[in-house]
Amino acid sequence: MKNDPNQGNLFNDCLFSEPEQTGDQSDEDEFIVALVVRRKKRKGFKDQQLASLPTVDHINEIESCTCPICKEAMKEVSTQLIRQEVKFIPAKVENHRHFQKTYACANCEKSGTRTPFSKSEIPRLPLNNTAASAALIAETMYQKFEQKVPAYRQEAYWDLLNYPIPRHTITNWHIKMSQ
User: Fold this and answer.
1) Cβ pair 127, 140 in contact under 8 A
2) How far apart are CA 103 and CA 72, in angstroms?
3) Could you state, in order of their start, the residue ranges of all structural domains in the chain?
């Protein structure tokens, strides 16, 4: 085969010994700066969401209302709302409110000794600072990973059930639960 003078030889090592430099390239390293913008939280948004749901109250009481010191009956001092969680019942969403009762010994209070207080146990949520129950998070994960429902469709689904959940909240739940 004759060599064409206008065409280079592929087997000529001196043609490809140095990298080609264009005008856009430089020897300096490039730094990419990512700007993280946090959205401002809306105050009262959780209360607004929970207001439209039917409410079920859970009042947690202690097993024994007797004073550990003097063995007399203790009186109820207060009932405090600890948290609200949204529980998913298929095709039904309810607001379950958890109250915690506190008891004090009236006998010790009268005698002027140290007054013992007792509080009932409260079941824990899978994620802190959220109203989502384990059933609600499990349903969003089931829809996402088993039913292949994207977050924007889940957002519309929960809106139809009168409990709007933003898609970024749903995806944050999945990330935190997987950690």
Assistant:
1) no
2) 12
3) 47-123, 124-179
Mean pLDDT value of segment 74-91: 88
Q: Does residue 1 register a pLDDT over 80?
A: no
Looking up tokens 């999945």, which residue turns up?
Answer: 174
Phi-psi region of 24 (alpha: psi -120 to 50; beta: other; left: phi over 0): alpha
**Are residues 63 and 118 in contact, defined by beta-carbon separation less than 8 angstroms?**
no
The set of long-range contacts for 159-166, using a CB threshold of 8 Å and a minimum separation of 24, is: 161/91, 161/92, 161/93, 162/52, 162/53, 162/93, 163/49, 163/52, 163/53, 163/86, 163/93, 164/49, 165/140
For the entire predicted model, the pTM comes to 0.56
Reference 45, options 164, 178, 175; nearest CA is 164
